[in-house]
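Lecture 7 notes: from sequence to structure.
We start with the chain below.
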Amino acid sequence: MIVFMPRAATTADPFNAIAESRRRDILVLLASDERSVGELVDALELPQPSVSKHLKVLKEVGLVDVRRSGKQVFYRTNADAMRPLHAWTSMFERIWSQQLGRIKERAEGKR
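Predicted C-alpha cells for the same chain:
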C-alpha cells in the first residue's frame, strides 16, 4: 500500500516555493542585485500582480528581503535562507561529478 504524504504549503517551505519556475526566475534576477517590483515586471514580462504574488510567497518563506525607499519597494535574496537549498543540492554535486568523470573516460577510451 502506498501512502502519500500531504505536500507542505508553498508559503511554509522554500523547496515548494521554488518549485514554481517564475519564482526561480525572480531569484536569478535578484542574485546579482536588489530590484524594484517594476524592474522585475519589465525583466520577466509578466503583469505586476503576478510578480507581486510570487514575491509575497518568496518573502513568506524568507528567501527574499524587502527594503522600502519612499514609495518604492526593493527586493533582494536572503543568502542565509538559501543555505538549506544549497546544502541539499550540493549533496548531488559529487554524483554529477562522478557521472561526468565516467563520461569523459568513455569518450577518451580509457575504460
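Points to note: The chain has one domain: 14-107. The longest helix spans residues 93-107.
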